[in-house]
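Complex 200.
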Amino acid sequence: MMAALEDVLECSLCLDMYMKPKYLSCHHSFCEQCLVAYVESNNIRPGGDLVCPECRQVSKLPVKGVKGLPVDFNMNKLLEKLADIFLCDVHKKEEMKLFCSQCNVYICLVCHASKHNGHSTKDINEKYDEKKNECNDKKEIINRKKNSLEYNIQLAKSSKVDMQIQADDLEKLFGIEGNKFLENIIDELDRMKIVTKTRA
Ligand SMILES: [Zn+2]
Ligand SMILES: [Zn+2]
Ligand SMILES: [Zn+2]
Ligand SMILES: [Zn+2]
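Predicted structure with zinc ion bound:
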């Protein structure tokens, strides 16, 4: 998984990728284990006030403790799907780490050693930075977090040659707030997967 992607999908308590994310009433998510540790170190009792480590909004800690908090299924799904998209289509278990400038596709190291042997390649993160610059002009309509997600979708899109999703579709997608936003990204990723499969 790339560093930039991790930024978006990272728990602000452990600064790592979410593990079993649960969300508070302010809709900020944290790993279950991180919340357990947070609750313990702040001596929060079941039914007591849980101050969000990110926005300071107060939620009630359920009677069952952290276990009683709702699971962030959307984030879970998103994590799975993003991980899946960055796997090589040919070598299912290999992460795509390079961009082949010659064939205009993202490839894994096994691809590089075989089919793309001798082709000029770029590090995938370098390619990501280029994409990011292309997207800069849209910044004023979307906030930072949504922006990063858009870059990732753009990146995922460009990894599959000639995706059918147009820029205005994306704009529509990012105009939608809250939970709906994640759901839409998940739909979009599903759609991309289908397009890829039909073309393969
Ligand atoms: Zn965490
Ligand atoms: Zn919060
Ligand atoms: Zn491969
Ligand atoms: Zn190539």
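Residues 24, 26, 28, 52, 54-55, 57 surround zinc ion (ligand 2) (CB under 6 Å).
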